[in-house]
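Incident log, support desk, overnight shift.

02:14 A customer reports that sequence design results differ from what the structure should imply. Their input is reproduced verbatim below. On-call engineer (initials T.W.) acknowledged and began investigating.
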């Protein structure tokens, strides 16, 4: 039986919500995903979460400013788009360093 959901997770050394959102918006678009909705929340005194509801599932980013890192998780039912996202993400992650 083929997998039904393809997951990708990563940590990045970036916590700026604008940089994360701009970069992930671009990666989602370039990977061919269909964004149905997006929501975000800024925590007090710090922290940020953003969720992209995709026709193919979802993408989430959670910042951990106290550690200088963010956790990114993509779940998708489309293997080709997932693989494209992973390749683009690897290039984007180099830019973030």
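02:41 Re-run completed on a clean worker. Output:
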């Amino acid at each position: 039986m083929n997998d039904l959901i393809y997951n990708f997770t990563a940590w990045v050394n970036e916590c700026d919500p604008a940089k994360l959102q701009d970069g992930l918006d671009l990666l989602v678009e370039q990977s061919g995903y269909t964004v149905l909705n997006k929501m975000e929340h800024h925590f007090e005194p710090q922290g940020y979460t953003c969720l992209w509801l995709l026709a193919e599932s979802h993408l989430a980013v959670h910042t951990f400013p106290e550690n200088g890192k963010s956790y990114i998780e993509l779940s998708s039912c489309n293997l080709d788009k997932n693989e494209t996202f992973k390749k683009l993400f690897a290039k984007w992650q180099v830019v973030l360093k």
